[in-house]
Recover the amino acids of this structure.
């Protein structure tokens, strides 16, 4: 696939049916990493419309290939959500967070290789003038992978990223056969 047809990837992202709990919009993409890039940002909302998670996805494309990616495409993801205070002290949270990514990719049928990333869990307690602020706990998953896209179809990668965001934010998966009805990506 040449850079001249990168518009197919952009169109697929813009036409993807996002879950109604997600608000997704295009954001400026990095310009120096690859000849072609497209970036989106998502906010995950609870049933009462409270923000419970955020994320970004950048799709990079270098028609000449990139040895560091071992391919011509690279997906770069960020997912963040508040978690229960007890959860952040679990020494297995990092491994579980990484599993959220890999299981999301596998469940969506998103073929990939050369995945890498970090899972960070942080708790914070306020003191002094901020002592009245509640304790907080957060998990952050930063990852990248080289997608294998049959017929240049990025849809499974998008479904996997959506599942990662929702899992990180604590939303249950959509039941089999249920299709989210949402509008096009906001421009």
């Amino acid at each position: 696939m040449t850079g001249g047809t990168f518009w197919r990837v952009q169109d697929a992202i813009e036409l993807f049916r996002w879950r109604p709990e997600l608000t997704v919009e295009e954001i400026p993409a990095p310009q120096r990493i690859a000849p072609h890039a497209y970036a989106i940002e998502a906010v995950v909302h609870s049933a009462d419309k409270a923000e419970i998670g955020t994320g970004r996805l950048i799709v990079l494309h270098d028609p000449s290939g990139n040895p560091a990616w071992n391919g011509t495409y690279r997906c770069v993801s960020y997912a963040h959500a508040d978690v229960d205070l007890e959860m952040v002290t679990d020494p297995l949270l990092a491994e579980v967070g990484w599993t959220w990514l890999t299981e999301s990719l596998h469940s969506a049928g998103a073929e990939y290789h050369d995945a890498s990333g970090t899972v960070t869990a942080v708790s914070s307690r306020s003191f002094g003038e901020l002592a009245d602020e509640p304790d907080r706990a957060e998990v952050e998953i930063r990852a990248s992978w080289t997608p294998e896209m049959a017929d240049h179809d990025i849809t499974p990668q998008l479904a996997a990223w959506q599942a990662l965001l929702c899992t990180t934010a604590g939303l249950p998966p959509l039941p089999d056969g249920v299709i989210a009805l949402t509008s096009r990506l906001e421009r």
Q: What stands out?
A: The longest strand covers residues 51-66. The radius of gyration is 17 Å. The helical segments are 7-15, 85-88, 93-107, 155-168.
